[in-house]
Structure to design on (291 residues):
């Protein structure tokens, strides 16, 4: 019996995702391709590897065993590919960067435009997401992350410190300035119990109007007049519709890092992008800490 690598990789993806759609997305193929590969492996083995249920595919013990073997193969494959990429001394070919969408919108887009003009043979792909992509599995070559602890398994370069501020529409700010003891409306991040303590020390009375689970939604809520919102300084100062809560000093926040895998340290493309990012952020450090 022999299962080809595509089928093994598909079994691994389906065990991880639990659905045809999730596996297809992970492999960048159609869900019919996933189904066909799984069926081919099952036909060759003469047994079912998954129990088909309305909510998804339930892996059998045999499927899990094959998935563990495929994961080991995947690790070896990715290590070999990283090693080869790390030896690449040319400024040409594919390069994948992942970064938060809002940071791309306010700062990275013009930087990346200039980087591409200076390096026209680099085929840059940018994955705009706040999700933690796996650099070990080469979902990206470089990752810009906002974190107090970016992790020990990757090589990190500190790009900028960050601070936060609290902002709202002008009428809410005027109300706070006129009467610090007035009840102020706030919109806060999901999971938080109350507005920032530093703000409450100056403006103790508050009402939570809503909670949102991402910064894009919080910004939209602030601009819709739902209340004060805590956000990174670079976002607060980039929106002319919003004003800063008076008297409140910027508060410490997680810094910005660029991360890469150890195996890619000598890649010319990775080194070029990291060096350019370092120069760009160092020249604009006040954007992230000063009002």
């Amino acid at each position: 019996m022999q299962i080809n690598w595509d089928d093994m990789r598909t079994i691994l993806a389906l065990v991880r995702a639990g659905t045809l759609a999730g596996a297809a997305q992970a492999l960048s193929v159609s869900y019919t391709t996933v189904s066909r590969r799984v069926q081919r492996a099952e036909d060759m083995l003469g047994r079912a590897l998954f129990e088909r249920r309305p909510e998804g595919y339930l892996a059998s013990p045999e499927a899990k065993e094959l998935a563990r073997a495929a994961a080991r193969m995947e690790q070896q494959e990715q290590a070999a590919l990283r090693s080869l990429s790390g030896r690449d001394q040319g400024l040409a070919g594919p390069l994948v960067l992942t970064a938060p969408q809002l940071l791309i919108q306010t700062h990275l887009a013009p930087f990346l435009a200039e980087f591409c003009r200076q390096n026209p043979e680099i085929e840059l792909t940018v994955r705009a997401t706040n999700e933690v992509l796996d650099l070990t599995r080469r979902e990206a070559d470089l990752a810009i992350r906002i974190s107090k602890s970016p992790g020990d398994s990757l090589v990190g370069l500190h790009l900028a410190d960050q601070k936060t501020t609290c902002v709202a529409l002008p009428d809410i700010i005027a109300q706070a300035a006129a009467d610090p003891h007035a009840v102020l409306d706030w919109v806060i991040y999901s999971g938080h119990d109350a507005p920032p303590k530093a703000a409450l020390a100056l403006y103790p009375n508050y009402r939570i109007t809503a909670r949102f689970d991402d910064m894009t939604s919080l910004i939209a809520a602030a601009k819709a007049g739902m209340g004060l919102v805590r956000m990174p300084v670079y976002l607060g100062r980039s929106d002319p519709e919003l004003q800063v809560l008076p008297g409140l000093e910027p508060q410490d926040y997680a810094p910005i890092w660029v991360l890469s895998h150890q195996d890619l340290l000598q890649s010319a493309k990775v080194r070029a992008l990291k060096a350019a990012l370092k120069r760009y952020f160092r020249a604009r450090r006040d954007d992230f800490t000063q009002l």
